């Protein structure tokens, strides 16, 4: 397959069962490609005080349905959840489970956990036709990830990160395709600056910085550290950590000079935050219901997102009822009775087409 490979899409009829397919659509993947670096350039040109607004990679949460929702409310760029690269490369089942997208899910960055350059480059080759870039997770502080050589373990090995970036860039020939990293900071910020300068020379597209060390949890992010990194490189820098509303976006942009901001817990609690809402508006909850049902979102994911969205606007008594509901029907009945939210899946306008991931099986030959 050439670099302008074909994408197979499955169109789901939202007026029938969510798993019924009504045909295959074939389209050229290049038609929907986005040069993500132009996002940073365009924002800076149009409004130097603005920043690219990004939905962070979140395990179990930043999947297709949620990405579709936040794109309706001012999100410029979205990430997949972190995907373990070696499993993704070796297993069709893992690809089916871990990655779903559609033709409206752009621009999109796929984030991978990898411990070596080969795994990351192999995964990037496979996923390149369906995304606009890949991101290497160098920030996950969880013990299991670090024990496997993933996440924040990597910031102790800047030469390895440099090699992973170089090999990935060399393997994928798709124009405009980005290779980025998401990091945490070192105790000694000189190490962080040195690492970022090394990967910049290796050709990394941008760096997202969570302003905490791997050992920090609830302590305030160090935005001065992010400013230091921004002042030390020429590539775009993204700030991550406690971004919960547009006031935070503006404050962090002014304080650090970064090119983009990335929200995780803040956007989970309020998917409309980038549109200027202080709390999740009812229309956003309605949109989530429509999108989640149309895309066949599991009950656990559907319910957990709603718990997060309603956290700031429900009383303790309401939480005791809503948070323990055990079926989609019970949730829908509760939402209709208490908020007037009904099932209106026709409002999705057919926006629940998804790539058949088995089509990715042979894409390792994409650029050979």
Shape: globular
Total strands? 12
Which oligomeric form is depicted? single chain
Q: Tally the helices: what do you get?
A: 15
Task: Output the structural class.
Answer: alpha/beta
Largest sheet: 8 strands, parallel, barrel
Low-pLDDT stretches: 1-31, 345-368
Gyration radius over CA: 20 Å
User: Order of strands side by side in the largest beta sheet?
Assistant: 3-4-6-7-8-9-10-11
Average pLDDT level: 87
Helix content: 25-40%
Order of helices and strands: EEHEHEEHHEHEHHEHEHEHEHHHHHE
Commentary on this structure:
This protein is α/β, with parallel strands linked by helices. Helices cover 40% and strands 15% of the residues. It is built from 15 helices and twelve strands. The chain has helices spanning 36-46, 64-71, 85-90, 92-98, 117-127, 143-147, 158-171, 189-202, 223-232, 246-256, 265-269, 282-294, 299-310, 316-322, 328-339, and strands at 6-12, 21-28, 52-55, 77-79, 83-84, 108-113, 133-138, 178-184, 207-210, 237-240, 260-263, 354-355. Strands 3-4-6-7-8-9-10-11 form an eight-stranded parallel beta barrel, surrounded by six helices. Helix 7 (158-171) runs parallel beside helix 8 and helix 8 (189-202) runs parallel beside helix 9. The longest helix is centred in the middle third of the chain and has 14 residues, at 158-171. The radius of gyration is 20 Å and the shape is globular. The model is unreliable at 1-31 and 345-368 (pLDDT under 50).
């Amino acid at each position: 397959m050439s670099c302008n490979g074909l994408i197979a899409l499955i169109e789901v009829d939202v007026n029938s069962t969510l798993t019924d397919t009504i045909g295959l659509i074939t389209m050229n993947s290049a038609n929907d490609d986005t040069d993500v670096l132009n996002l940073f350039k365009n924002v800076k040109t149009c409004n130097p005080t603005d920043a690219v607004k990004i939905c962070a990679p979140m395990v179990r949460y930043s999947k297709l349905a949620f990405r579709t929702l936040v794109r309706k409310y001012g999100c410029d760029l979205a990430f997949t959840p972190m995907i373990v690269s070696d499993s993704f490369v070796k297993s069709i089942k893992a690809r089916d489970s871990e990655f779903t997208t559609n033709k409206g899910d752009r621009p999109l960055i796929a984030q991978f956990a990898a411990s070596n350059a080969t795994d990351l480059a192999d995964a990037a080759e496979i996923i390149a036709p369906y995304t606009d870039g890949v991101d290497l997770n160098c920030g996950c502080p969880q013990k299991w990830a670090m024990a496997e050589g993933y996440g924040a373990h990597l910031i102790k090995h800047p030469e390895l990160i440099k090699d992973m970036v170089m090999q990935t860039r060399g393997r994928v020939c798709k124009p405009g395709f980005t290779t980025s990293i998401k990091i945490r900071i070192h105790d000694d910020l000189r190490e962080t600056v040195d690492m970022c300068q090394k990967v910049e020379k290796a050709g990394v597209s941008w760096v997202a910085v969570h302003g905490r060390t791997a050992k920090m949890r609830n302590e305030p992010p160090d935005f001065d550290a992010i400013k230091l990194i921004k002042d030390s490189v020429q590539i775009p820098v993204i700030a991550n950590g406690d971004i919960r509303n547009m006031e935070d976006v503006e404050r962090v942009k002014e304080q650090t000079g970064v090119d983009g901001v990335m929200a995780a817990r803040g956007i989970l609690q309020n998917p409309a935050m980038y549109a200027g809402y202080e709390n999740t508006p009812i229309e956003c909850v309605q949109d989530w219901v429509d999108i989640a049902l149309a895309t066949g979102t599991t009950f656990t994911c559907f319910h957990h997102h709603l718990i997060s969205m309603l956290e700031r606007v429900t009383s303790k008594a309401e939480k005791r009822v809503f948070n323990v509901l055990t079926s989609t029907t019970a949730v829908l009945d509760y939402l209709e009775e208490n908020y007037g939210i009904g099932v209106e899946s026709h409002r999705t306008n057919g926006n629940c087409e998804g790539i058949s991931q088995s089509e990715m099986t042979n894409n390792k030959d994409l650029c050979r």
